[in-house]
Amino acid sequence: MAEAAATGRAPRFFQRLPKVELHAHLNGSISSATMKKLMAQKPHLRIGEEMVAIDKGAKRTLEECFQMFQFIHQMTSRPEDILMVTKDVIREFAADGVKYLELRSTPREEKSSGMTKRTYVEAVLEGIKQCQEEGLDIDVRFLVSVDRSKGAVAAKEIVKLAGDFLLSSDGVVLGLDLSGNPKVGHGQDFLEPLLEAKKAGLKLTLHLSEIPNQEDETRLLLGLCPDRIGHGTFLQTSELATQDLVDLVRRNRIPLELCLTSNLKAETVPSKAQHHFGFWYRLGHPVVLCTDDKGVFATELSREYQLVAETFQLSDEQIWALSSEAIDHVFACGHTKSKLKERWQTLKSVLLEELR
């Protein structure tokens, strides 16, 4: 019955539902429409759409997914590329009913275009500013990402850059993300820069336990008391071996950013029904639905909500609660959270009344 109701709600209910997106990588969020514009500007690269997106029903290994970003980065090698994709990504999230968005990206330098890591971030911030000036109904913030595959020295440079923008961006740059290929490097290498980030006042979200058998690294990084966890796919899968990890995450009420389509298409979970959303949701632990890379994985946040509703038999009220409780886990200040909660309360009566 609940599944039938969920299907009956789609897609309008999920698109109209006000949503919070907290785990969205900028380059992975580039839509096919934007990618076509980039391809038209750089035909000499001969990069096809199948090289930068995974169609419906298709899957790739996690390693193949990371290889796709090499092609995407070739398409976004200039500050003007970063500006354009930032604006397009924000507009698309806004069109999908996202009211608050925390974009994340690793600053890159490109000698061919003269782009530096600083001008990369400046291009993102300019894109956010221009969207604000357009009057889009979305509040956008930015998290600077550390790519673990680049090593500790690069991480220290990124942390310093993020700290600078934390002070100069008027509340737009809020935190630091540790991400990148989980098979490369070890969390131990990043303890010092991550601690520096915390001392600087940056919020921390860490990709943890994306692949199996990383209990030691996860335990080490959890010692930093991160503000959020990205994925946490294998936190609870080794029974007694990781029970202490589950207990630690639960005790500290660390919210998990969960991305169903991403995990399914990257083959890190075997099926929708076996996704770890169910484990944490049944425990009453804080979870936030996210897209990860909406362009690469050909999804939208409204689809993620619909997927969860249908898979785990969630009611209108449960879906609304998932959306509204996500506000508690944004990195913005208490005033912003209060404003968002007021907005949700206003929208709730309107949306549910329309559906009746």
From TrEMBL:
Q: Which GO terms describe its biological process?
A: adenosine catabolic process; inosine biosynthetic process; nucleotide metabolic process
Instruction: Give the Adenosine deaminase domain ranges.
Output: 18-343
Superkingdom in the source lineage: Eukaryota
SUPFAM superfamilies given in the database record: Metallo-dependent hydrolases
Keyword terms, alphabetized = Hydrolase, Metal-binding, Nucleotide metabolism, Zinc
Q: Which reaction does it catalyse?
A: N(6)-methyl-AMP + H2O + H(+) = IMP + methylamine
| Gene Ontology molecular function terms on file | adenosine deaminase activity; metal ion binding
Question: What are the required cofactors?
Answer: Zn(2+)
Q: Which InterPro entries match?
A: A_deaminase_dom, Ado/ade_deaminase, Metal_Hydrolase
A Pfam family of this chain: A_deaminase
User: What PANTHER family does the annotation carry?
Assistant: ADENOSINE DEAMINASE, ADENOSINE DEAMINASE-LIKE PROTEIN
How the protein assembles, per its UniProt entry? Monomer.
- Give the family from UniProt: Belongs to the metallo-dependent hydrolases superfamily. Adenosine and AMP deaminases family.
Official protein name in the record: Adenosine deaminase-like protein
| Species assigned in the record | Pantherophis guttatus (Corn snake)
Question: In the UniProt record, what gene is named as encoding this protein?
Answer: ADAL
